[in-house]
Amino acid sequence: MVSSVRWSLAVVVGLVLFPSALVAQTAGDTAPGLQLPAPFGIGLTLYDQTQDYALQNLTLGLPGIDGDGFSNLPVDNRTDSYHLKLDWWALPFLNLYAIGGRLETTTTVYLRDADVQLPIPLGNLRIENDGWVYGGGVTLAVGWDRWFGTVSTTYTRADLEVTDGSVEAWVVTPKVGWTRDAAAVYVGAMYQDAEERHRGTYELPFIGPVPFEVVLGEASHWSGLLGATVGFGEHTVLLLEGGFGARKSVMVSLEYRP
Fold first, then answer.
1. Are strands 183-204 and 208-218 parallel, antiparallel or unpaired?
2. What pLDDT, in 10s, does the model give residues 131-172?
3. Does residue 23 lie within any of the structural domains?
4. Are 146 and 110 a contacting pair, CB within 8 Å?
5. Which domain holds residue 56?
6. Burial class, 103, CB count within 10 angstroms (exposed 0-12 / middle 13-18 / buried 19+)
7. pLDDT, tens digit, for every residue of 119-131?
8. Quick one: which of 4, 18, 32, 185 is 20 to 30 A from 244 by CA?
9. Among 19, 45, 43, residue whose Cα is nearest residue 250
10. Cα–Cα distance measured from residue 141 to residue 14, given in angstroms and rounded to the nearest whole number
11. Rounded distance, CA 133 to CA 129, Å?
């Protein structure tokens, strides 16, 4: 997924929690005043992510090109996605969910920095793609007083439609936060482990289309998260989340629980 569908997307992919669910594990179903969320929910998530990739392997269909000259080339990518999430509170502290949606990605491999002996410049390999992304995961939640902690683990796969390629990713997001009435704030981290593959043709100046195959992975697995949720009535929650550090991201999610 050319731009970093890693996941995401994460990328894609955060869990929207009702504040009342955040204390479900420690308070128990019979705690005075405790109101657990409805067991089923549906949400729409918009996600944007930028980060650096690590080039694991690159092959160009040109004679006499040594692949060692492509090591340590800078690579950046961007992913924009939107997806639906269906979730179910199987237990007061255990949430299961499935996601599916669309994404648009762009990855740039800076071949101009390659250490290869060619009489012509290579330029940059820019791969733009889109396709379907789907997956699922699990969240564990624990709470005490107004504080809460969650850990979500998500697996996603993207089927790309422009190039012959795919992306598979694991994302783990631990979070800790504070809730009051219908709102909550939290800090956390995102761990991504993705593999992105592409096979296609690259337009080389003065030569024409040249076949290529590239394998990409994470340049940095960890990034920070900061977010907030607010409830509207008894059924709707809005989540806003930003990522910082090696990976920059913005997520907006709206969830409805009938």
1. antiparallel
2. 999 999 999 999 988 999 999 999 999 988 888 888 899 999
3. yes
4. no
5. 19-256
6. buried
7. 677 778 899 999 9
8. 18
9. 45
10. 13
11. 12
